[in-house]
Amino acid sequence: MTKVKIVSGITGKSCSCGSWLEHWENFSNEKAILCSAKLCLETQLVGVHVKKMHSTNSAQYIIPICPYHNKLERVFEISDNIILVSADPKETCGKAK
Staple partner for 45: which of 33, 41, 64, 74, CB 3.0–4.6 Å? Predict the structure, then answer.
């Protein structure tokens, strides 16, 4: 069981993938079909920054999420099969080739 919280104040940050949703798809090797929130079946999605709760890891990750869950200011559980993709372009799309 993984619990996350949306990281606020990310507006304006970007990567070379075009959008954070595309970033997630590129580095998870998955197609974003459903919201990552557990039991949510919404298909209108955006890529958002989250941090893991109850973890010593302070890294930020990208997950696909619906507009409703994107507005939550509380901790919520994500589905077990969701891949957390690093939000740091230095580790992903901005990595020197």
Answer: 64
Give 16-75 pLDDT, tens digit per residue.
898 999 999 999 999 999 999 999 999 999 999 999 998 888 899 999 999 999 998 889
Domain count, the chain: 1
From residue 88, give the alpha-carbon distance in Å to each of 15, 34, 85, 91, 95: 9, 23, 9, 6, 9
- Biggest CA–CA distance in the chain, Å, is 39
Residue 93 lies in a domain: no
Whether residue 15 is contained in a domain is answered as yes
CA 32 vs. chain centroid, Å, equals: 11
Beta-strand relationship, 60-65 and 85-86: antiparallel
Enter the pTM of the model. Answer: 0.89
